[in-house]
Structure formats: C-alpha cells, structure tokens
Design goal:
Blueprint: E1 2-3, H1 7-16, E2 19-25, H2 30-43, E3 50-55, H3 60-65, E4 73-78, E5 81-87, H4 92-103
Parallel strand pairs: 1-3, 2-3
Antiparallel strand pairs: 2-4, 4-5
Amino acid sequence: MELIDSNEIVEELIRNKEMLLIYFGSNNCNVCISLKPKVEKLLLNYEKIQAIHVDVEKSVYIAAQHTIFTIPAVLVFVDGKEAIREVRFISIENLSYKISRYYKELR
C-alpha cells in the first residue's frame, strides 16, 4: 500500500481508477498499525483494486476533505464515487463482503 501525502494525487486516483481503497491511519495508532497488514492481505484477493495509505497526522487536509474524524478508516471508491466507508471498529470479513459485491461488477 503506497503512502500518499498529496491531495491532488488522491483526487486524481479517485477520478481515474475503477476501484480505489484509501486506508487512513497513523503511526501513533496501535489499532491502525495492526489492521493495515490485514487489509493488505485481504487485497491480495482483489488484484484490480489499487490501494493507498494516508497518514492523517501528516496529511490532515486529505483526511478533512474526506470527513475522517476517527481512525482507522477505510474508504472504497468505485468509478469515482464513495461506495464503502468503514471506521474505527473494522471487521475484515465484513469489509471483504462489501468489497466483493462491487468487485464482481468490474470490467
């Protein structure tokens, strides 16, 4: 998962990727640190999804643009629109189910 700190890059990826997952977290958040590898492992099942990581402490503006008030948070965009939002208590199984519903429709 690539660390992105530019709002312009994030917005460009949202517009241009068929499916994009944004993981919002922080190095000072133990839950974020333990959840990130689980999300990365989950994404191995979905090779068409591009995933990026935003450190909310270094990229406050990006978090604010997406109304992220608590972490960890996972946003999934499909064709430029937010389709999934999971925050704080994130179930990998539930996230996988939600992603799979949209993933089946990809070209």
